[in-house]
Amino acid sequence: MFRYTKKTLAIEIIVLIAVAIMLLPFWILLVGSFKTLPDILSSAAVAPPTSPTFDNFVQLLSPASASSGNIWAGLLSSVIITTGSILLLVALGSVAAYGIARSTSKWSRRSFYLFLVAIILPTQLGTLPLYIGARTVGLVGNPWGMIIIYTGMLLPLSVFLYANFFRNLTPEYEEAAVIDGANRYQVFSKVVFPLMSPATGTVAILAGLIVWNDFFTSLIFLNGTSWQTLPVVMYSYVGSLVSQWNLIFAVVIVSMIPILAFYAFAQKKFIQGYAGGLKG
Amino acid sequence: MTTKTQTQTPVAAPRRAPRVKPYRVKLGSWWWALPALVLMLIVIYATTVAGGFFAFTNWSGLGPFDFVGLQNFVKIFQTPELIGSLWNTLFLAFGFLVFTNILGLLFALALNRSLKSRYVLRTLVFMPVVVSPIAVSYIWKFIFDYNGPLNQAMVAVGLPKQNWLASPTLAIWCVLIVMVWQNIGFVMVIYLAGLATVPIEMEEAAALDGASTFRRFRYVVLPMIQPSVAIATTLTLIQGLRVFDQVVALTGGGPAGATQTLALEVYQTAFTYQQFGFGAALALILSLLILVFSLAQQYATRDRSLKEA
To answer: pLDDT per position in chain A (280 positions), as tens?
Structure first.
């Protein structure tokens, strides 16, 4: 009924142009990062560099330059904090959601509601006391504190995603394992854990993106320390670079590469995760 | 849902047969949730309650403090600069909601099924979503620069150059553009998920009955993607009210407070000016705004079809 007509072709061309225009900023970023400072200020922004140069990246990342220490430290800090948060979220979130999903007690329902309400609750109000509390117990300015804080903040999302998954998962495999003599801890680690990888993927992508790109929390808790994450490093570095766009673009590109590499590798899962995961 | 099942119970319901319990093994207990529950209660609930408490004090963040009653709130509403931030926040939030949803829906409709390049294009439109707002803002800061690409384009078509980010009227639109640009793909994906639930047969039937493209969308597709509309508008509204990163990176709240938002005020008051109590009062207002608007939004976009049925 709906066939590919001339009209469809016209729409296809229009949409292609629209997407091309929409992605122009990425193109400007890419070509700009290979331009010299005079070149980037004088040439057309969309034009490729007249004499492409790696100097911006060299100046940014080579061990000799002043900035490179911060950039590499920021990268390391971001990797540690994001990985740690994902691991803790998967460990705590899956066990909690499994307990809730496979139990019929009223306490399981009540705790689930607590997690649900926490998803809706605005986090703004809690951030200031959280900072004071974390400062008091020494969790400010180090990655372990950040991992715990991010985990606490994102647990509702993770429990919600896992609980939905477990409710749609038939308990037959688990029951079969029990009949075969496994206790429930073995059931969880040997049967459930391998089965839940789709939900784990969604949790890892959604939580990982939030933590990796987060600026607000990490600015408050890590600004000025040696554990600043990449967005904060970028923020303070750009602040010192008054209009040296070639260098700014190099920082921006370096900060984007890890996440865009992940995206290129698993774009389907990213999009599914967003479409399905955020429906709550 | 529950009411529905109740009303469907037959009038002469036979006495319920004693339910034969299937063989059921105990697989998990609710207390497995305890570690997660405790951590969440501390990090989210306790801190939120504490924030509400400090909103009524004059605490600086260190040392002793006094209760000041509603004084913080009175001061907020007597400070024109803060009222300005409130309006800026609302402007950005609603502008973000409207433009992101319209553009996201248009892309979703365009990339739903007929185009050959739809899968590639979806991936590309979604790409800005995964990178950090700070990074995105720096690209756009260059685009809006006085000697940047946007003014190059303006000159090329014979228009005067503008001081985009330094203009009190234009700067807030620049922030809005960056927010919208980055989230079109996000909203598109939500609408695509909704559109996937519309059976093609229904659209075909409407088309055979002579419905125009617009009427097919308005009377067949739109009612069916109502849940997606509710989710997308609520999420964009919340995200818009919380805007922080883009403002910090693009304008820092300037020029002369023209792009100040509540989230930025909270941060500056509490951490730059060390007025924790006052910052908490601002955060309380922001949180209430988010809560009230998202509940109102849920109500406005609720699924009316259930009620009519």
So the answer is: 567 888 888 989 999 999 999 999 999 999 989 988 888 888 888 888 888 888 888 888 877 776 777 888 899 999 999 999 999 999 999 999 999 988 888 888 899 999 988 887 888 888 889 998 898 898 888 899 999 999 999 999 999 999 989 988 888 888 888 888 888 888 888 889 889 988 999 899 999 999 999 999 999 899 888 899 999 999 988 888 777 888 899 989 998 999 999 898 888 888 888 876 554 4
Q: Are B135 and A234 within 8 A, CB to CB?
A: yes
Q: Which domain holds residue B181?
A: 35-303
**Interchain contact B265–A (C-beta under 8 A):** no
The answer to whether the Cβ–Cβ distance between A278 and B231 falls below 8 Å is: yes
Nearest to A92 among B39, B124, B186 (CB): B39
* The pTM of the whole model exceeds 0.95: no
Q: How many domains does chain B have?
A: 1
What would the DSSP string read from start to end of A176-241? HHHHTT--HHHIIIIIIHHHTHHHHHHHHHHHHHHHHH--HHHHHHHTTSTT--HHHHHHHHHHTS
User: Mutate which of A35, A110, A112, A125 to test chain B, going by most B C-beta atoms within 10 A?
Assistant: A125
Domain for residue B204, yes or no? yes
C-alpha closest to that of B289 among B51, B90, B85, B88: B90
Of B43, B117, B128, the CB nearest to A149: B43
Put simply, whether B104 touches A (Cβ < 8 Å) is no
CATH classification at residue B74 = 1.10.3720.10
Domains and CATH numbers, chain A: 6-61 (no CATH), 68-240 (1.10.3720.10)
For residue B28, being part of any structural domain is answered with no
